[in-house]
Write a structure and sequence with these properties.
- By secondary structure, the chain is of the alpha/beta class.
- It has 9 helices and 7 strands.
- The chain has a 5-stranded parallel beta sheet. Strands 6-7 form a two-stranded antiparallel ribbon.
- Helix 3 links the parallel strand 3 and strand 4.
- The N and C termini lie far apart (about 40 Å).
Length: about 280
């Protein structure tokens, strides 16, 4: 097993190929970034090449980073002539409907076994929900994640807490593979980074993250439209449920603190769902 620092922990997977540390055109990884992941990036790319049945697994109760990681990698794999199934334990949030077609994700429990399974944006096997067993049954297991709490539970573990999101890590993987991004993949990766950094407000959104975002925007993205789709558009039922909750707003500490309560029943009465809140 290999971790993201390239330290050998046991039997190796498929032997890696030598790859350039910096991609052509001056937009590749820095030597430091490439050297940190070169061994495991090569391991992953070799396993992809040797595998016929591949599954991408996002974490339960999916968020933007988990969803877009799956979609970006599925699109990349398709360009390499590889078909991949995608599974998620949970419903896709309404604000990603324009970008994530729920019909692309399988819902059956009894699928597989797979030659290769990738756990995306999941710090523990339990985070995969009901698809944990599917992951553990795969011949080769890859963990691709950015959470510092992830101790590694795959044959190859690519874990980097210095990046803002799993989507940013995937950007570096594709860059390392000398893959020329298209607008669709750039859009997926941008959304994953945007949402997992709290709209670029969290400390993890450092200078490197913004340079990655700049490279993604060069593919013709429209940040204002993406922002509107993800953060501004609300179902009518959700708006009504939030209005009902605000009607019961209570003030504390001489008006410096406020509390509003919304329940599943309130959401249902307004034709909404509590998981849309």
């Amino acid at each position: 097993m290999f971790n993201s620092r390239g330290n050998k922990k046991g039997a190796s997977a498929v032997p890696g190929r030598r790859r350039p540390l910096v991609a052509p055109g001056g937009q590749g990884l820095s030597r430091l970034e490439a050297s940190r992941h070169a061994r495991v990036f090569s391991q992953l790319l070799d396993l992809i090449g040797a595998s016929q049945k591949i599954c991408l697994i996002g974490h339960a109760a999916p968020d933007g980073d988990s969803l877009m990681s799956c979609l970006a990698l599925k699109t990349y794999l398709a360009s390499q002539g590889k078909e991949a199934d995608m599974v998620l334990d949970g419903q896709i949030p309404y604000n990603y409907d324009r970008y994530a077609d729920s019909g692309l994700f399988l819902v059956r429990d009894h699928i597989g076994p797979y030659d290769l399974a990738l756990a995306l944006d999941s710090a523990t096997p339990e985070r995969l929900g009901r698809f944990k067993k599917l992951f553990m049954a795969a011949r080769f297991k890859i963990v691709l994640d950015h959470h510092s709490t992830n101790s590694g539970f795959g044959n190859v573990n690519i874990i980097d807490s210095q990046v803002s999101s799993t989507c940013e890590l995937i950007y570096h993987l594709l860059d390392f593979a000398n893959y020329r991004l298209n607008k669709q993949i750039a859009e997926f990766l941008y959304i994953g980074i945007l949402t997992d950094t709290g709209r670029f407000r969290y400390p993890a959104a450092n200078g490197r993250t913004h340079r990655v975002v700049g490279a993604l925007m060069d593919h013709g993205l429209k940040p204002d439209e993406i922002y509107g789709d993800i953060f501004r558009n609300k179902p009518a039922g959700l708006a009504q449920a939030c209005g009902a909750a605000m009607a019961g707003l209570r003030l504390f500490a001489e008006g410096r603190a406020a509390l509003a309560k919304i329940t599943a029943r309130t959401a249902e009465l307004n034709n909404g769902r509590i998981d849309e809140i």
